[in-house]
Write a structure and sequence with these properties.
By secondary structure, the chain is an alpha/beta fold. It is built from eight helices and ten strands. Strand 9, helix 7 and strand 10 (about 230-235) form a beta-alpha-beta unit. It binds 2-phosphoglycolic acid.
């Protein structure tokens, strides 16, 4: 696992957007694993800028997203399908039929089955983008006694509900369950970039980059087993955890 320390969060977003753009240029049929959350919004803004400036072609790109809230339909502005359309897909020449965000409503067993087959369909993703939760979750794989390798339903932890409540009217409105790609599926991607910024991510990033241990209590630590995983943090966060660069 490699760690890159940037001057600031803007630089992190630029760097990751440029990496995604390079992958798409080199392989126009690339399969991208995408993520949502506050951290990714600026990465997508940068990617849209590159798309406009360089006529980047997404017409043959396929995407599969990490997760979705259970109980929110795709039209709901707080669903991750809506987020992806709004922050990226509506602004680039991607064919939405080639984008997959698991459904948040309907027959859950069927959705899980469909999700698992979409992740492996036509081979593993070429790239996976990740944020990180305050307890180290990746996708919605929460800290606990065990981790699931495949897509599954997950009960959201109190810390996740609290962190994500900023988008909802109040905390009680945040869905309690989500469907998420499993950690084995996340690690099947050929290349992974995890991006973090801010004080709230201190403990999670400390567990990820400041010791050699892998633990289910910090799901992101599974990335230490991946041969092509990159953690992108800014100087402020590196200083907070005492990482020397
Ligand atoms: P955030 O979420 O980017 O909104 O902090 C990241 C995550 O929960 O994975």
């Amino acid at each position: 696992m490699k760690v890159i320390v940037t001057e600031n969060f803007n630089e992190s977003c630029k760097l990751v957007a440029e990496r995604i753009a390079t992958i798409v240029k080199e392989k126009p049929t690339a399969k991208l694993g995408l993520a949502t959350g506050g951290t990714c919004e600026d990465i997508y803004k940068n990617l849209i800028d590159i798309y406009k400036k360089e006529n980047l072609d997404f017409s043959k790109v396929h995407t599969v997203n990490l997760d979705e809230y259970i109980g929110l339909d795709p039209e709901n502005e707080l669903s991750y399908r809506y987020y992806m359309n709004n922050h990226l897909f509506n602004h680039i020449n991607i064919d939405k039929a080639n984008t997959y965000v698991a459904g948040g409503i309907g027959d859950v067993d069927k959705i899980v089955e469909e999700f698992r087959s979409k992740v492996s369909e036509n081979g593993a993703p070429d790239f996976q983008l990740l944020g990180i939760g305050v307890s180290g979750h990746i996708g919605f794989n929460e800290a606990g006694d065990k981790l699931h390798s495949l897509a599954h339903l997950e009960d959201l932890q109190k810390s996740t509900i609290k962190a994500n409540s900023r988008y909802f009217e109040d905390e009680s409105m945040v869905p309690r369950k989500a469907i998420t790609m499993g950690v084995g599926e996340i690690c099947s991607a050929k290349e992974i970039y995890l991006v973090a910024t801010g004080e709230s991510k201190k403990n999670a990033i400390e567990g990820l980059i400041m010791n050699p241990y892998v633990t289910t209590q910090n799901p992101s630590t599974i990335l230490k087993l991946h041969t092509n995983a990159v953690v992108v943090i800014d100087k402020a966060l590196a200083d907070l955890v005492g990482y020397k660069y």
